[in-house]
Structures are given as C-alpha cells and as structure tokens.
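Q: Could you predict the 3D structure of (Fe-S)-binding protein?
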Amino acid sequence: MRVALFVPCYIDQFYPQVAVASLELLEKLGCEVIVPTDQTCCGQPMANSGFASSTEGCDTNFTNNFAGFDYIVGPSGSCVLHLKEHHPSEKIRNSVYEICEFLTDVLRITSLSAKFPHRVGLHQSCHGQRGLRLSSMTERNEKSFSKLEDLLGLVEGVEILKPERADECCGFGGTFCVTEEAVSVKMGQDRIKEHDANAVEYIVGADTSCLMHMEGILRRQGSSIQVKHIVEILNHE
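A: Sure. Here are the predicted structure tokens for (Fe-S)-binding protein:
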C-alpha cells in the first residue's frame, strides 16, 4: 500500500520524533511511505481564526503535494479534520486519514511488536473524538469505544488509565489558548490533576497540540509526568 505521510507544521518544528515514529510504524506494517518534501501548513490556524479566505495558498500547495495518493495519513486529528471538512478538493477530503483511524479502519491491524511497560493516562482529543469519531462521547449515552485504547491494548506491558471525566477538553483549542489564556490554562490544569491522581508516568494522545499544551503546564508545575504521541508507543520496541 502506497501512503503519503502528512506532517503537520508544529510536529515538524517541535516534535519531529512523532513524524519519524509515524514513518517507521507505517513501514513496519507494510506500507510504502512517501513524504512530500514541499508540504507546509494545512491552513487550519487561519480557518480557525476566521480567515478561511486566506488558506488558498495552503490548499493549493497541499493539493500539489498530495493529490496523487489514495491514502494521505497524518498524526494530528485536528489538522486531518480541517482537511476533511474544508479542503476544496473532494479527492483530498476522501483520501486523508488520521493515523489511528488509518490503522484501525484501513489496515485493520490486530497485533504489534511494541512494548511499553509503563502507566499511561489516555487523553481523548476533541477533534479526534467529536469530529473523527475516534472514541465514544459521554453526552450521547452511546456504547463506549476508543480506537486509541484498542491500539494501546496491542502494546505489551502498557497499563492504561483514564481520567474520571474521560472526554473533557484539555483547554488547548488552537487559537483559543491564545485569546482565552487563563481559561485555557485552568482547563489544562484540571485535566492534569485527574491524570496525576492516577499516578501515571505518561499522558498519551493522538494530537500533539493538546499534548504540547499540557506539557507546558506540567513543566511549570515541575511534574515528572511526560507526554507522548500514541505512535511513539505503538512504534516502541
């Protein structure tokens, strides 16, 4: 299977290890992975701030880099959801997948060679949960499910712990964390408090943006808890 790897700009700049882990994991699972070298921002920051008309350059560049692929996979639910909902190319909208969605729904993996003997707190990001349906939502009173939890369950030694309010927002919210800084920080502190109560070693999620937000709070608190994107664990041996 030939797959194009979409690397969101904040991962490229701040968490390149997530992109590397995504590449390695997909290759281990038998995919031929192409990383288009001229890719840049998907346009989500402008669209979220009310400047959707300013994303034309991003849209065109994304099309130029990815239009030739049947599968476009990225390790960021919020960026992928933006492309699914707002990119002008129907082919792009139908071809782009968040990496956990791709692993469960397209590759349908049932085993991994990964090992990670640690206590991890699972964070369900809002875009992945409510936009991409990576997990159930408590407000819908539906049968509980989580594609992230299913994938982590394939990792030897991992102990999964969930906060009491399992699907509450961490407060990042893209530009919300800039325009409503105090509210954003308090929401992040509340999330971390519940994970801390579970004595986790790592907070794990599928959106590095949310993890970045919580990591900043953890560092300021002097906490020993670390954050990891889920692909870093799924690829860990």
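Q: Anything worth pointing out?
A: The chain has two domains: 2-106, 119-234.
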